[in-house]
Write a structure and sequence with these properties.
Structural class: mainly alpha
Number of domains: 1
Order of helices and strands: HHHHHHHH
Helix content: over 70%
Number of helices: 8
Largest sheet: none
């Protein structure tokens, strides 16, 4: 069984079990440790292939991260006011996340690790790049179903395509890691920054 399939199954199982006992943030953090360990053990060369740091890639990551974070920050209040499903899903995710400022390092590790699995392992390989991006984004979105929030799955699909395209364009995970981290911090910590 290919490493990406094995790790996806491990990720889904660990995510479901850990989340049930410790909240989404700690569940994903524990899952991240499993993924990082498995990649480090199975494919030591992956780190060198994926973590190419170039100024244009960093700028792309910061730009896309800023746009997606700003769009989320501006559109989320409107969507939650007008679309009951989005309001329910966001409330559920935030209520069950267990997020606090003390967990900021864990939140950062989660986004970075998700990029290793979904845009790293899933985008490596043969075949048309566009198909690989769509398959990786689809599997990533389905894996998010464990959070029991259908609208989050839709967002994961959209962002998965965007972040996958960034990986293909730059041949590095660094830009998508930056963008993913900025978006995740907005989703998780946005309410803390805007509440009085």
């Amino acid at each position: 069984m290919p490493l990406r399939v094995s790790l996806t199954l491990i990720w889904a199982l660990a995510y479901a079990v850990a989340t049930a006992y410790s909240g989404i943030v700690m569940g994903l953090f524990i899952t991240s440790a499993v993924v990082i360990g498995a990649i480090s053990f199975a494919d030591k060369a992956a780190w060198k292939r994926w973590l190419l740091v170039e100024p244009r890639g960093v700028l792309l990551g910061l730009g896309v991260g800023a746009v997606t974070a700003a769009a989320t920050h501006l559109l989320l209040p409107v969507l939650t006011a007008w679309v009951p499903l989005v309001a329910r899903d966001v409330a559920h995710m935030r209520a069950t996340s267990g997020a606090s400022w003390a967990l900021l390092p864990a939140v950062a590790v989660i986004g970075l690790t998700e990029e290793l699995l979904w845009r790293g392992l899933w985008l490596d390989g043969d075949g048309p790049r566009a198909r690989r991006v769509l398959v990786a984004a689809g599997v990533y979105a389905l894996a998010q179903a464990g959070c029991l929030a259908p609208s989050i799955v839709g967002v994961a699909l959209s962002l998965g395509i965007l972040w996958g395209a960034m990986r293909v364009l730059t041949k590095s995970l660094v830009p998508s890691m930056i963008a993913h981290l900025m978006w995740t911090l907005t989703m998780v910590y946005g309410p803390f920054l805007t509440s009085s």
